[in-house]
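Our consortium's second objective concerns turning raw sequence data into structural hypotheses that experimental partners can test. To show how far this objective has progressed, the report includes one record in full. It was chosen at random from the queue rather than selected for favorable results. The single chain below, 194 residues long, was entered without modification.
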Amino acid sequence: MSVQALNLDAFETPPISASQTRQYVTFTCAGQVFGIDIMVMREIRNWSPVTPLPAQKPDVLGIIEIRGRVVPVHDLALRIGCSAERNIQHEGQVILVMVVDGRDMGLLVDAVSDIIEIEPEELLPVPQIEGSAARFLGGIARHGDSLVAILDERVVQAQSVALEADPPDDMPGDAGTGEVFLIDEIGTESQLQT
């Protein structure tokens, strides 16, 4: 399937009930097949360079401008824990632009595969496997002889996997530790009794 700009802004669609067939855009990311609800997709874009921002989280590649809107672009593999290293961006990749609760978000993925239709009975619950990124999934879809991991777009937008590059939660003076540290004018650190 060749990737062309897919603009879904102009279409009004009625709410989908739980008994209706749903469509998902399938794509590959870090060698795995995922799907995302087509109703949250604004467009699918060929890769284009992003503008980096200072002091951003590791999964944020930067921003792009789309018809007057500034959209943050995230490395999906890094965001959901499929990879521990930032993706080397290249022209073969694709940016999925989705809108969740009125907020735009771009996801850098390897390639778009297809649009599939899934009946409610074909959507299986996500197994809770310790150490997995199961919290990012809304279900597992049976499609032919294979399984497709369906992303929960709200969780993908709201959460990311903590990486070693993220600041630790137990910094001196963190309210969660119960310890308070003072650093005096000459740089000596002392602990206050709480």
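The partners drew two points from this record. Confidence is low (pLDDT under 50) at residues 5-17, 165-194. The first helix runs from residue 76 to 79. Both points have been shared with the crystallography group to help prioritize constructs.
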